[in-house]
Amino acid sequence: MVNDSVALERREKEILKENENHLAGFEKWLMGTGLSKKTINTHVSNVEFYINDYLCYYDVYDVKQGAMQIYGFLGNWFIRKAAWSSCAQIKTNAASIKKFYAYLLEKRIVEQEDYDDLCRTIKEYMPDWLEAMNRYDEMMFEDYY
Question: Whole domain around residue 23: which residue ranges?
């Protein structure tokens, strides 16, 4: 058991180091798109939260595996764990993550099929995630009063 946790910690450190490189490359890639520095910072921050916090929260996933984890993130974890979560933030995070995976696709880090699945999942489930966010907000409001 101790060896498993040590191996998991080692894997997490490796992935976090890889993620630094991915984020730096993503930021540079975004700079070439003509986006404002503020928008670039938002995208990088959103992606950093996804790949460093969520993908390493319950288990340790690299960015390739992360393409298949979007449903759990935007449909549940982000709503409950991010104090700033809102319908607008869900949409913004989805846009940031799609851009990040477009970058990874261009760099041949992920496959076209994985990128397409990610985009399809976001498109198909966005209404459900927004509804879940609204239900969560209502529940929190009712608990407050």
Answer: 2-144
